[in-house]
Amino acid sequence: MAIQKIKDLDPNATGFIDAGGDIGIIGPKFGRFAWSIGIRDPDGGPYDIKERVYLKEGAIVTSGNYERYFIKDGVRYHHLIDPKTGYPANYYKSVTIISDNAMKADAMATAIFILGDKLIGLDSMTRYGIQVYGITSDDKIIKTTGFDYYLKEER
């Protein structure tokens, strides 16, 4: 909503809005260049990145188990709860979504994180206008085939 309001006020506006890690792109940097956005390494510190993504429009959102959590008896308890078990979902460490808007990206990141390995055919998610980049609990990278497009700085 905020991005559309800004674009309504100034169709040539550029920039991005970062709402706690949910990032919406207003327009290309300096009107031409892609914004460089890091996907955080869930096992690293706040400035450690796993991958760099380049966006001129749309939104990127990550759901992860590394911001809001505690560890008790060697088990990480975080805020992304599997409604079937009542316990934190544990297939992914993080799921990043690129979409045309942040609300859709946020909902899909949370849903895919919780569904984990129960979601069959990750590439089928592209029909909803999203690209997915997931880091599993055993450090495998799972991504939709179209995600690589956003890993290239010049396109």
Structure notes:
The chain has 155 residues and is mainly beta. It has a single domain, classed as T-fold, CATH 3.10.520. Helix content is 14%, strand content 36%. The protein contains 2 helices and 10 strands, in the order H-E-E-E-E-E-E-E-E-H-E-E. The strands form 3 sheets. It has a 6-stranded antiparallel beta sheet with strand order 1-2-5-8-9-10, covered by helices on one side. Strands 3-4 form a two-stranded antiparallel sheet. Strands 6-7 form a two-stranded antiparallel sheet. Strand 9 (131-136) and strand 10 (141-143) form a beta hairpin. The radius of gyration is 16 Å and the shape is globular. The mean pLDDT is 94.
Low-confidence stretches: none
Annotation field: number of helices:
2
CATH 2nd-level architecture? Roll
CATH topology-level fold name:
T-fold
Instruction: Report the mean per-residue pLDDT as an integer.
Output: 94
* Total of domains: 1
Strand composition percent: 35-45%
Q: How many strands appear in the DSSP assignment? A: 10
Radius of gyration: 16 Å
Helix content: 10-25%
Compute the separation of the termini in Å: 27 Å
Strands side by side in the biggest sheet: 1-2-5-8-9-10
CATH superfamily (homologous) name: ApbE-like domains
Largest sheet: 6 strands, antiparallel
At the first level of CATH, what is the class? Alpha Beta
What is the 3D shape?
globular
Descriptive keywords:
14% helix, 155 residues, two-stranded antiparallel ribbon, mainly beta, 2 helices, T-fold, six-stranded antiparallel beta sheet
